[in-house]
Structures are given as structure tokens and as C-alpha cells.
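Title: Comparing notes on inverse folding

I've been comparing how different people in this forum approach sequence design from structure. To keep things fair, I'm posting one structure and asking everyone to reply with a full sequence. Here's the target:
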């Protein structure tokens, strides 16, 4: 869960003859990803993860997805990679394009009003589900085999469908829009770095407030404004998301998952997990593994 001290800008370069970049990873286990985990870029990014489970870490939002993901990330919104060798997905398709795609004049046409608004909403990060994820994800996978003109027309149509879909979640709806190289963002990034290195132990408010260079009352107000949540709830959610990943990645005993995720006891872990996820850790693991493999893992 460690991240770099500051997000690193990724250089996005479309291949000659194309106005945007499409990458398709048919075998995620063979993927060599040299991009820094915690990164950003001016281009918007549309990602379809075909099956599997993993972590969403976009801006101030941290959560866990199951059975795939379709996500649109706005310009300069820091984010973490969505797949790794433990994710268990069948494939991943990534599309990166300019905030003025396909052109500034075209984007200002009345017919593109919904897409233009979609780009604005993507500043928070948008996760799509249901029919939208299933159908638009399949269309994204087909982009890699299309000729350039057909590819751009298909992408415009996909964006239009996403723009009018109601099957979405705004990931940073209650947080602020993180801006690169601002004092507010640097402070939050320092807190994220501290959390990623220390979430497994007890963290007094006085200590994390000191990391932010603030008094405890000022820190609590700041953190609530940034994330829409209290620090204690955010830390618990951070631990739960990590636990969800462990429950899917291996067959460790649930007691081990609890302690590895920063909880002091299995009973505390079970209560927090049920509150945030709506199921017990055992139920979550059983549902996840049946969905992925069609069979139950060995009981631990």
C-alpha cells in the first residue's frame, strides 16, 4: 500500500496517426507496468477491468471493487493502478485522451453538451456499473482492433452513452477536487503517505495532525472538508479496503487478515467490516471466491 511522496506525472503519447491512446492487456499476469503507482496526467482516462477484484484509489477516495470495473478519471486527478498480479481479472483496457477530445470546437457543439458535462463530472472520478459497465466495457475491448476512424467514432459514442447513464457512482463526491502543486494537495498527499506506511498501528490524532502541520481541531476540520469524512472513519475504511484485498488475494486466516489490516482484535474487525461492507469477512470471502472460481476456498 505504499505510495510515492508525490504523484508522478505520466507522459501519455498516442501512436502516430491517432489522437488518443488505447492499451489492451489481454494477459494481466504478463503485464509489465513501469508507470508509477501513484500518478496523474492531464489526459482523461477510461479504464475497463474485465472481471476480478481490486482497489480503487482515486483522489481522496479509497474503496474495493468486485466483478470488474469501468471508471472514468478526470484530468490531473491522482490515482493508483487498478490491477496487479493478484486482481484475478481476465483483461484490462485503458483509453487516454485530451480534455478537449476530439477537439475544442467539436466539444463545444450542442450535440456534445452531455459529453462536455461528463468530462466536468469526471473531475471526481466516476465508476460505472450494471448494464453500462458490461456493454460499454465490451465495446472498449473492441477498440484495439478497429481502424483509426472507426475507433474515434466508437469512443465518441461510448462517451455519449456514459454521459447519459444513471448507473454510476461519483467517487470523490464529498471531497475536494485535488489540484496538483497546490499547498492543499501537498498537505493531503503527505497525510496519504503517512497513512500508507502506518495504518497497521494505532495512530493518535495528535500525531497525524503534526504530519499535516496543524493543531488537532484545525486538522479535524480540514480533513472533514477534504474527504467528507472524519479521520477515524477514513482510517477504518482504509483498513477495510486493504482487508478486502487480502481476503481475495490469499487464504490467510481471517484473524491474520484482521491484524495485518491494523485491527486490534477479530471482534473489532468483524464489527467494522460488517458496518462498512454489509457482510461479515467470512461471507465476503465466500461470495468473492464463488464468484471468481465457482467453488469455495478451504475454510480458515
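Reply #1:
Here's my take.
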Amino acid at each position: 500500500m505504499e505510495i510515492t511522496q508525490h504523484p508522478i506525472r505520466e507522459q501519455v503519447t498516442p501512436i502516430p496517426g491517432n489522437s488518443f491512446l488505447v492499451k489492451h492487456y489481454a494477459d494481466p499476469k504478463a503485464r509489465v507496468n513501469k508507470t508509477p503507482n501513484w500518478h496523474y496526467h492531464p489526459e482523461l482516462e477510461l479504464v475497463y477491468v474485465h472481471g476480478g477484484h481490486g482497489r480503487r484509489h482515486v483522489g481522496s477516495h479509497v474503496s474495493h471493487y468486485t466483478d470488474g470495473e469501468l471508471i472514468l478519471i478526470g484530468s490531473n486527478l491522482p490515482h493508483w493502478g487498478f490491477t496487479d498480479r493478484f486482481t484475478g481479472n481476465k483483461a484490462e483496457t485503458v483509453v487516454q485522451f485530451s480534455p478537449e477530445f476530439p477537439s475544442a470546437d467539436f466539444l463545444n457543439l450542442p450535440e456534445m453538451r452531455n459529453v462536455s458535462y461528463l468530462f466536468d463530472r469526471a473531475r471526481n472520478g466516476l465508476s460505472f456499473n450494471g448494464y453500462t459497465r458490461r456493454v460499454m466495457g465490451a465495446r472498449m475491448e473492441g477498440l484495439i482492433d478497429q481502424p483509426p476512424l472507426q475507433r474515434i467514432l466508437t469512443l465518441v459514442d461510448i462517451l455519449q452513452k456514459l454521459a447519459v447513464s444513471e448507473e454510476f457512482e461519483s467517487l470523490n463526491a464529498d471531497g475536494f477536487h485535488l489540484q496538483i502543486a497546490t499547498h492543499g494537495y501537498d498537505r493531503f498527499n503527505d497525510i496519504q503517505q503517512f497513512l500508507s506506511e502506518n495504518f497497521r498501528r494505532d495512530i493518535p490524532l495528535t500525531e497525524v495532525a503534526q504530519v499535516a502541520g496543524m493543531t488537532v481541531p484545525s486538522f479535524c476540520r480540514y480533513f472533514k472538508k477534504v474527504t467528507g469524512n472524519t479521520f477515524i472513519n477514513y482510517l477504518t475504511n482504509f483498513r477495510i479496503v486493504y482487508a478486502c484485498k487480502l481476503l481475495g488475494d490469499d487464504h490467510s486466516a481471517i484473524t491474520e487478515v484482521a491484524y495485518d489490516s491494523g485491527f486490534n482484535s477479530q471482534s473489532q474487525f468483524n464489527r467494522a467490516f460488517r458496518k462498512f461492507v454489509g457482510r461479515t469477512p467470512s461471507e465476503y470471502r465466500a461470495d468473492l471466491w464463488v464468484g471468481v472460481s465457482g467453488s469455495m476456498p478451504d475454510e480458515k
